[in-house]
Backbone:
């Protein structure tokens, strides 16, 4: 049984429930995904399944990727991800759709690459308050302030929040509620927002039970 599938974020919309209430949801085209490799505890030390998503022309892939897929008679796929699996393991070449993995009412985690914001200062990147607006402070409103003492430690500590590249990182939006599943169009409607820009690749994963 697979625990996650790959999909494409389409954007946000509204979903009208049967009782008339309206929810803000993110529409995600999930799958169909093809099982390209199966790993087992006996041979690899853990149970997992590699899935492929989005068919592309052969010229779009390199030789190793094509060889990996063609040995199992699977067409060229742009995206490959390894996901954990439990119970009955699917066979290589099995096509899995959204309605086979997800159901209405369960929670999912959405993992994607966030929107890139470029170089940003401390106020925008880390929500710093900024300097005082009075007593002659005319050019320090959005400055970071002190970044460390001179004698001890005598350097800037690693990981200090400063200006720099913002966004364009792998991030996860947790505990999204599946509002609806459209099996005909392989669509998943998840309440709330999802990371990344429209047409970005999203890994939709069942929330792990504690």
Residues:
């Amino acid at each position: 049984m697979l625990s996650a599938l790959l999909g494409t974020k389409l954007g946000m919309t509204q979903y009208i429930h049967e009782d008339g209430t309206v929810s803000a949801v993110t529409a995600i085209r999930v799958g169909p995904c093809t099982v390209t490799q199966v790993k087992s505890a006996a041979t690899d030390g853990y149970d997992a399944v590699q899935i492929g998503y989005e068919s592309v022309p052969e010229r779009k892939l390199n030789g190793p990727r094509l060889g990996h897929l063609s040995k199992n008679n699977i067409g060229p796929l742009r995206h490959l991800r390894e996901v954990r699996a439990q119970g009955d393991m699917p066979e290589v070449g099995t096509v899995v759709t959204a309605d086979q993995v997800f159901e209405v009412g369960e929670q999912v985690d959405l993992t994607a690459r966030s929107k890139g914001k470029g170089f940003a200062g401390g106020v925008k990147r880390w929500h710093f308050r900024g300097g005082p607006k009075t007593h002659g402070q005319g050019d320090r409103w959005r400055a970071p302030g002190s970044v460390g003492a001179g004698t001890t430690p005598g350097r800037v500590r690693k990981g200090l929040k400063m200006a720099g590249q913002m966004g364009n990182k792998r991030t996860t939006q947790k505990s999204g509620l599946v509002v609806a599943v459209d099996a005909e169009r392989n669509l998943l409607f998840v309440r709330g927002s999802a990371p990344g820009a429209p047409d970005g690749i999203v890994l939709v994963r069942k929330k792990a039970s504690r």
The chain has a mean pLDDT of 89. The two ends are 18 Å apart (CA to CA). Residues 29 and 186 are 6 Å apart (CA to CA). Helices lie at 41-44, 63-70, 98-101, 122-126.
